[in-house]
Amino acid sequence: MSKMKTGHYPSRTEDKARRAISRPPCTHVRFIDGRLIEFRVYMLKLAKLKVKIQQLQDTLKESRGFIDNAPVGYLAISNRGKITEANLTAASMLGFERNKLLHRHLADFMVSADRVRWRQHFAGLLKHNEKSACELFFRRGDKESFLAHLDCLSYLRESQEPVVRIVLTDITERKQMDKDLREHEEFFRMIAENTEDFIAVLDMEGRRLYNNPSYARIFGATARLNGTDSFSEIHSDDRERVKQIFMETVRSGTGLKADFRFVLSDGSVRYMESRGGLIKNSQGHALHVVVVSRDITERKLTEEETRNFAFHDALTKLPNRRLLSDRLIQSMAAGKRSGYFSALLYLDLDNFKPLNDQHGHAVGDLLLQEVARRTSNCVRELDTVSRYGGDEFVVLITELDADKSRAICVIGHIAEKIRGALAEPYLLVVKMDENTESIVTHHCTASIGVELFMDHEISPDEILMRADFAMYQAKGGGRNSVCFFDSNSPKLFGGGQLMRDHHVEV
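The structure assignment produced for this chain is given below.
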């Protein structure tokens, strides 16, 4: 530090003042108690922060559409304990349609033993306005109960009553697994050679050095496996990916999970879930790779069955209302891009109830299955035949034609083809017992309503309503006929007269 001309070294305050004066003019200064205090105004940083906040808000807005399909349930609860919002996952977990959850008390869906505890917990949430969590048993519709973890947050909206947000996670399986692990940890340690899992020790290139007896279920004797390539039986579409995971485990020493298909000698396929880990020597060098695998075929099949159950009718295996709604929205978007018309056909059987009354619901189910088969045979694979409920079916025909007249002609012939197919006699084979069958002959026709649409001129619900209305006009006009909805006439929905033609001569 240099001396000043006064003959003394500058004090820290003086030195700080000199540095402040020499800085760029963006710095604002003022004096307090004779000392120079500098204040920098970070306007640029604040502006960047504002932009970031706006970006986060935009991202939050865009992500709302993904909340419905989140892997956990989301609920909003009023200060009275009633459900005001719920995503589809929460509705599925509780076993009800979403609209049947709203405005009901959350406690209604809990087992009775946990309701008092929830009310106490909920009261504390409203009082303390902070995060909290609890675990409670819920009942899935009218079926079995399940244990859920609730992450709760209470907050006040400006000039509004408090709202409680809940993240609902089904932890039944996890809790059960934790319990089983605690109870059987020592036991499993002693019976590695008898475990149902597949345990293999491999060299650094994936050749087999040891396989536990579980592999005998796949290969027979395990002795002949020594020295063979562990990747050779993996499905060709999965093999390279599994090799990459294996090499990453060798490189990093971190066990990675791999799901893959295992092809048996008879050509059948098993789904496997594996995780590897390194065996190291005393110097920390990798010697071998141990891989523990599990056959998850049944789980995969169950998951697939669950997905099918969620989107398909259990009796006919046709798409249900949920899947139909999704495809209808897709077809409207496709029509906007292509400029092609699509059509919705609403079918109702004309002579179904007498069959049920005379022969019972089992025979009625056979008829519904045959109706599903005949209708599906009349359309393309890209079209959708859906069982809408009872003896009602909805058919979605896409990409007809850009010209409306030609589109009407095409859909008219398709509708007539379906009507004719469904009017043929039904020979229903009924099993009386293990060795006896009976054939029930039944004559049944269908009334069909048709709505032509393109783009988003009207909503999906209105498309269904118009086709439904046209179907009822077909019934009123003598049944076994096809009716088109005409949106130009002012008689229905602000305009609508039905154009009916028993044989659709277009």
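Interim note for the steering committee: Residues 43-67 form the longest helix (25 residues). The CA atoms of residues 111 and 138 lie 5 Å apart.
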